[in-house]
Amino acid sequence: MGLSNRTKRSLLYDRAAAGLMGVMTRFSGLIVVVIAAGLFWKSVPILKNQSLFSLLFSSEWYPLRGQFGFLPFIMGSLWVTGTAMILAVPPCLLTAIYLAEYAPRGIREGVRPLIDLLAGIPSVIYGVWGVLVVVPWVKRAAGWFGYSTSGYCVLSAGIVLAVMIFPVIIHMTVEIVRAVPQEIREASLSLGATQWQTIKKVVLRKAFGGVLAAIVLGLSRAFGETMAVLMVAGNAVRSPAGFLDPAYPLPALIANNYGEMMSIPLYDSAMMLACLILLGVVLVFNILAKLVLIRIQKEIQ
Amino acid sequence: MNQPHICVENLNVYYGPDPSLRDVSITLPGRQIIAVIGPSGCGKTTFLKSLNRMVELAEGARVTGRVLVDGEDIYSPTAEVTAIRKKMGLLSQTPRPLPMSIYENVAYGPRIHGLNDRRKLDEIVEFRLRQVGLWEEVKDRLGQPASRISIGQQQRLCLARGLAVEPEIILADEPTSALDPMSSRRIEECFLELKKDYTIVIVTHILRQARRLADYAAFFYCGRLVEHGPAARMFENPTQRETIEYVKGIIS
Q1: Can you tell me the distance from the alpha carbon of B56 to that of A53, in angstroms, rounded to the nearest whole number?
Q2: How many structural domains is chain A composed of?
Q3: Are residues A33 and A67 in the same domain?
Q4: Do A199 and A174 reside in the same domain of the chain?
Q5: Each residue of A135-155: pLDDT tens digit?
Q6: What DSSP character marks residue A260?
Q7: Which of these, B144, B125, B145, lies nearest to B135 by C-alpha position?
């Protein structure tokens, strides 16, 4: 009474499929660890050559002389990301609150998918839009106020980035705000509070951690964004001193130069260190945000 | 006897095409405990929430008919909803303290209505917490988050929070269903004390609770108001078939 061949074959396939899927899953989980380890291993030469402190806080970027100060690029990233956050956070919060609390069903169901679609636009298209629309506009607008700029500057990059992170922040914030139990709103409204008082003093207080996490997720997206920023930021190697100065953020540095000047000693290792810094910052932000979100979801349920 | 306080005329509430509450007309006496009874899903909560326009918060809800509170139609286009709601304290099934301290929960209502004088707020907080018998239990930890006290204490805190805006009416939606027997009793004792000054409308599916508390009772069945009247008569001599069966425990 053995099993039929057909059954045996089915069982074999079943085991094989489960095994394959298991391997794939473990593999993709490992990728991030492998990449981080690889980057670290490749940046060891430059870390042996110079102290981490001088690499991070020196502005001397003369690869031919073996000087690799990342400060201009770090400052470029901070300026561009900071500008994007300043521009993105207020409208995102207001939009998200409107969508979650005020919008009639028709608007909510019509607008939310459109905003989410922003997330699906390839970043090179944002870059082209930045070059064709934002950069000339910033140049002209600066001219009205008596400033001269090429338009390829922190502000342009910030505007483009802000639009790119809209969907990240809005989507998350709407989810978080809608997860606040209806009964808490009712408790506040039943005391004669207006809707805005209720949102400001009760709903947002309850959702605060989650909204913060949504903002941090947007921030890490902005920090790591490469293509669009590279096309509009101006890419001059010095720390920007204002919104109209060009900036050279870390991702743009890596994308522009990796593979170009590999004959220079330690250049390759310096690039790897830049990647490691970028990866580290983005990972830390992401992990923090996710931890907060997990805690909040538990708390709300 | 008591002045009529709330008059409901031909009230219909729709969440979809069919009414969840159909053609309800009732006059609720003032300064009494009015029990709204009936099996679950019969429209009791909808009725309660239509008294302070909370029913409108549900997406797609539609209300026709009139609800007069002190002679004023709360559904008229000129009525101001926050003023209406301020008149009525709401106590929900599970206590929902606001995400702030015990003190701030009670002070929340007076604050949003413009009171910022710390001394007056202190007085209000103490007075209202005493009124619900919570002061002695929490006076040393007013600054702690309200979510830290027991659920029975939370419900009394919610009652104090509602009282702090000086309502005339207390609406309670199965306020003891999440509580242990001791806490339930304390809430009931509060109600009996409060009815001297307030009109209390309490939704309950616990028949014995209705018997213990109510001066007046209204029985809902399948979205209709079947029968209403003084509690003694409602429980001893109901006239409608559904009421008789419900009071005797044949349907529930």
Answers
A1: 61
A2: 2
A3: no
A4: yes
A5: 999 999 999 999 989 999 999
A6: T
A7: B125
Contact B32, B55 (CB under 8 A): no
Q: What is the mean pLDDT of residues B124-145?
A: 95
Query: Are the CB atoms for A237 and A72 separated by under 8 Å?
Result: yes
User: Where along chain B do its domains lie?
Assistant: 94-166
Same domain? For A66 and A140 the reply is yes
Answer yes or no: is A56 within a domain.
Answer: no
Interface pTM, i.e. ipTM: 0.91
Residue A54 included in any domain: no
Domain encompassing residue A21: 5-49
| Ordered DSSP codes for A125-160 | HHHHHIIIIIHHHHHHHHHHTT----S-SHHHHHHH
Residues 183 through 202 of chain A touching chain B, CB cutoff 8 Å: 183-194, 197, 201-202
**From the CA of B139, how many Å to the nearest CA of chain A?**
23
Q: With respect to residue A55, please indicate whether it lies within any of the assigned structural domains.
A: no
Q: In a 3-state reduction of DSSP, which class is residue B27? A: strand
Q: Which residues of A touch B59 (CB under 8 A)?
A: 105
CA distance A171 to chain B (A): 21
Collect the ranges in chain A with pLDDT lower than 50. Answer: none
> CA of B97 to nearest chain A CA: how many angstroms apart?
7
Task: Kindly identify which residue of chain A lies nearest to residue B99, measuring between CA atoms.
Answer: A206
With beta carbons under 8 A apart, name residues in chain A contacting B109.
191-193
Q: Residue A101 maps to which CATH number?
A: 1.10.3720.10
Candidate from A189, A190, A206 with C-beta closest to B99: A206
> pLDDT tens digit string along A98-112?
999 999 989 999 999
Spatial separation of the C-alpha atoms in residues A185 and B202, rounded to whole Å: 20
CA distance B99 to A204: 10
Domain identity same for A184 and A257: yes
Of A186, A191, A193, the CB nearest to B92: A186
Rounded Cα–Cα distance for residues B161 and B89 (Å): 8
In a shared domain, residues A23 and A130: no
As a whole number of Å, the CA-based R_g of chain B is 18
Q: Which among A97, A289, A200 has a CA at the least distance from the CA of B99?
A: A200
Any idea of the CA torsion for B29, B34, B38, B43, to the nearest 10 degrees?
A: 70
Q: Report the Cα A135 to chain-centroid distance in Å.
A: 22
Query: Would you call B98 and A189 a contact, using CB atoms and an 8 Å cutoff?
Result: no
Examine the domain organization and report whether A187 and A113 are in the same domain.
Answer: yes
- Look at residues A202, A178, A183 and name the one whose alpha carbon lies nearest to residue B90: A183
Shared domain for A273 and A231, answered yes or no, is yes
- Return the half-sphere exposure (C-beta side, CA atoms, 13 A cut-off) of residue A231: 19
Same domain flag for A133 and A186: yes
Task: Quickly state the pLDDT bin for B1 (edges 50, 70, 90).
Answer: very low
Strands B33-37, B216-221: pairing kind: parallel
**Average pLDDT of span B169-194:** 94
Strand B169-173, strand B199-203: pairing? parallel
Closest residue in chain A to residue B157, using alpha carbons only: A187
